[in-house]
Amino acid sequence: MDERERLEQQEIEKRYNQILSSFRIEPKPKEKEKIEKAFHLAVKAHADMRRKGGDPYIYHPLEVARIVVADIGLGPTSVVCALLHDVVEDTDYTLEDIEGMFGQTVARIVDGLTKIDDGTFEAAEDTSLQVENFRKILLTLSDDVRVILIKLADRLHNMRTLSAMKDEKQLKIASETLNIYAPLAYRLGLYLIKTELEDLALKYLEPDVYNTIERKLEETNAEREEFINRFIEPIRKRLENEFLKFSIFGRVKSVHSILKKMNKKGVAFEEIYDLFAIRIIIDAPIESEKADCYRCYAIVNDLYTTYPDNMRRRDWIAMPKSNGYEALHTTVMSKDGRWVEVQIRSKRMDEIAERGVAAHWQYKNEGIVQQNSVLDRWLEGVREMLSRADTGNAFDFLSDFRSNFFEEGLYVYTPKGDLKTLPSGATVLDFAFQIHTDIGLSAIGAKVNHTLVPINHPLRNGDQVEIIYSKNQKPTEKWLEYAVSSWAKARIRDYLKDEYSKYYDEGETKLREIFKTLSLQFNSKNLAIVQNALVMPSKINLYYDVAQGRITVKNIKDILQKDEKSGSWFSSLFRSSVNRDVSLKEAVQARVEQRPETLVLGEDMDKIRYKISTCCNAIPGDDVIGIYHPNKEIEVHRTNCPRAINLMLQYGDRIIKAKWKKDEKIAFLTGITLTGVDRMGMIKDIMDVISQDREINIRTFNITAAEGLFDGKIMLYISDTEHLQTLIKKMKKIKGMDTVVRIENSK
Ligand code: MN
Predict the structure, then answer these.
(1) Torsion angle of the four alpha carbons 449, 451, 452, 458, in this order, in degrees rounded to the nearest 10
(2) Which of the residues 230, 346, 468, 576 has an alpha carbon 20 to 30 A from that of 304?
(3) Cβ distance 63 to 69 under 8 Å?
């Protein structure tokens, strides 16, 4: 054994002992034995393997196990599973071996963990693996929630060590983390893990933005500390006088949440007033914890001025969030006029907030919290949704699921006073379908709080809803836009599918004729090209549109001729794979090895065809990615574009890292919105600022004024983000100007 091996051996022992000392409740001798056995098996199984960064592979399962026990608070069984989580996947041991050695429960969890894979290369597959994967994650979640908790620990460690991965893999893993794992962690109440996952993902998705915010946080740190201490002092004194046991401290918000706020409000870092929150944790027995929290709340509001309309006062003790979060939040003004958010909660509430479900269930088992908690209801909802999920369209399923289950729900009442939970943003139609499919399909409107409204009327918390329906009603495609819940959408889709299939034969006959006119073969290859180009989810939809006369000879001609012409390297790739009869997957894999590591925008234009997507209008300086589709040009999006996020999830393996060529003086289209006080000469002043800069060209300029205020929108060509920032700064200096914000996404 050489020196390095000896040191590694020591490190392994050290990490293992750390796990053992992290248990909240000492494991029984039998359990300890199992952990020991799992440890030795994992060490043996991964003996010759190393992580991408060069560390011995065993560090990874050890770290996952440590997170599982120390940060999530799970017990011995979960630790055993965490240690073994990569054994079946990466080594010669089988699931049967595991079952023989550790029993059924461990084998079942390890199996669940093995099934959710981290994305192997499977390009050109149109149904998304990511989505399938996500469905699997949720299935295991409803089966045994420990699977997903261990998976979250696994993902956290992989994110912490992501720098060792290849660029395009980094982007894919980071986007999946931000869009699936972080929301899941939030839903399961794991705030700390959620926050860390978000920040790590952001670091890879928008490195410049991330680094800037982090730097600014550091620069302002000393001043902030001082402010916090000054603010806390009077509260501390009063609480001590009241003989409350407590701890009080300031907590800086995460980079991700700061950025979210900046984008939402269209303001700079310097204009975010709540970069931190004050947290007060009351140590009180369960019987008096609530009363003590309210007492503390009263003290804070007595010492400082509260926010005028009390809008920022949140009582999540009386009505906990659906992920189990309980606390009181209030925003008060400090002596020097700054708004400060104060969060008050008991030690138990804090532990649930930080550690999530595991802590929650621990309290539940001890009979401390209610049996049928909000979190249980949420899990119930997940199970229900999976059982009725529309298996035909995995992608819709994913986006529905995200909007349905990652956001706070909506509570409404039936005329009889029964409480129903709906996803936020739900409409009358969603409510109707939740009552009964037949009622949904025949709904024509509703009485909401005794006022008549249409089916697309959005509901609000506490509404009382009575559906009005009619036998003569007929759902249309528009309904898919009216409904928010996947349940309602699936039922509407089922209905439409039945309706459409009545036109199947007619559509097929018509399409055959069109193909004949164009002397094209009516074969599955050509059909697939047409179907893809028109973004039709199935042949039924295609034939329906043909039958309705919505698709013409010209449409088909355009599609198939355009396809002939596209000569980019990847369209030839897909063609060559057909010609030479090699499997598509192999062809892609071979090609990907040759493909440029990074797409250089402004340089590769002649070699690779790409287009800047108009949904987010990326300009040089923005963090961007490319997504390639067979037979089409590479789509370039900003990494924070919602459409790009969906595409990354759907086509995770088709992401190409993109960057801008330096010093390229090409103009790109972008937009800004302006608001301010309307006055004589305002428009002239705006135009002056723009015309002073000879490198800016205006495309459109709209301005409307009302009641002494104005609203403007300018679309212009500009060279990069720096240039844009300078322009925005100049605009802000115009007298009477209130906000100047870049349009993040134009619809
Ligand atoms: Mn792993």
Answers:
(1) -50
(2) 346
(3) no
Using the mean position of ligand 1's atoms as its centre, give its distance from the Cα of residue 260 in Å: 30
Which position has the token pair 């550690």?
A: 355
What letter would DSSP give residue 165?
S
Q: Contact 232/342 with Cβ under 8 angstroms?
A: no
The mean pLDDT of 688-712, rounded to a whole number, is 81
Q: Give residue 300's region: left, alpha or beta (phi > 0; psi -120 to 50).
A: alpha
Query: Is 0.85 surpassed by the pTM of this model?
Result: no
Letter string b/e over residues 683-702, b meaning 16 or more CB atoms within 10 A of that residue's CB: eebbeebbeeeeebeeeeee
Spacing, Cα 63 to ligand 1 middle (Å): 10
pLDDT in tens, 277-315: 999 999 999 889 999 999 999 899 889 988 665 556 778
Give the residue carrying structure tokens 């930080």: 354
DSSP bridge pairs for 611: 635
- Residues with a known catalytic role: 89-90
- Tell me the longest C-alpha to C-alpha distance in the chain: 91
CA–centroid distance, residue 79 to ligand 1 (Å): 13
Q: What is the 3-state secondary structure (H, E, C) of 351-384?
A: HHHHHCHHHHHHHHHCCCCCCCCHHHHHHHHHHH
DSSP string, 450-500: TEEE-TTPBP-TT-BEEEEE-TT----TTHHHH--SHHHHHHHHHHHHHHH
10 Å CB burial of residue 175 (0-12, 13-18, 19+) is: buried
Q: At 741, is the pLDDT very low, low, confident or very high (cuts 50, 70, 90)?
A: confident
Mean model confidence pLDDT for the chain = 80
Spatial contact of 668 and 618, defined as CB atoms under 8 Å apart: yes
Measured CA to CA in angstroms, residue 108 lies from 36, 94, 272, 370, 405 at distances of 20, 12, 47, 29, 25
Which of 264, 359, 352, 364 has the alpha carbon at shortest distance from 316? Answer: 352
Digit-coded pLDDT (tens) for 482-525: 998 877 888 898 898 888 888 899 999 999 999 888 888 888 88
Q: Looking at the predicted structure, is the pLDDT value of residue 162 above 60? A: yes
Are 358 and 72 a contacting pair, CB within 8 Å?
A: yes
Distance 378 CA to ligand 1 centre (A): 27
DSSP structural state of residue 427: B
User: What is the reported pLDDT for 531?
Assistant: 80
Q: Separation of 154 CA from ligand 1 center, angstroms?
A: 5
Domains within the chain, CATH numbers bracketed: 3-207 (1.10.3210.10), 214-365 (3.30.460.10), 409-500 (3.10.20.30), 502-566 (no CATH), 570-660 (no CATH), 668-742 (3.30.70.260)
Strand partners, 706: 709
With tokens 């100007």, the residue in question is: 737
Q: What is the pLDDT of residues 639-660, one digit of tens each?
A: 777 777 666 666 666 677 777 7
What pLDDT, on a 0 to 100 scale, did the predictor assign at position 238? 92
The predicted pLDDT at position 308 comes to 66
Give the whole-angstrom CA distance, residue 414 versus residue 459.
Answer: 12
Amino acid at the residue 467: I
What tokens were used for 474? Answer: 């007929």
54 exposed, middle or buried (CB, 10 Å; 0-12, 13-18, 19+)?
exposed
Distance 60 CA to ligand 1 centre (A): 7
Q: How far is the CA of 86 from the centre of ligand 1 (A)?
A: 5
The CA-atom distances, in angstroms, between 643 and each of 116, 183, 426, 650 are 25, 18, 22, 10
Q: In the predicted model, what is the mean pLDDT of residues 572-586?
A: 37
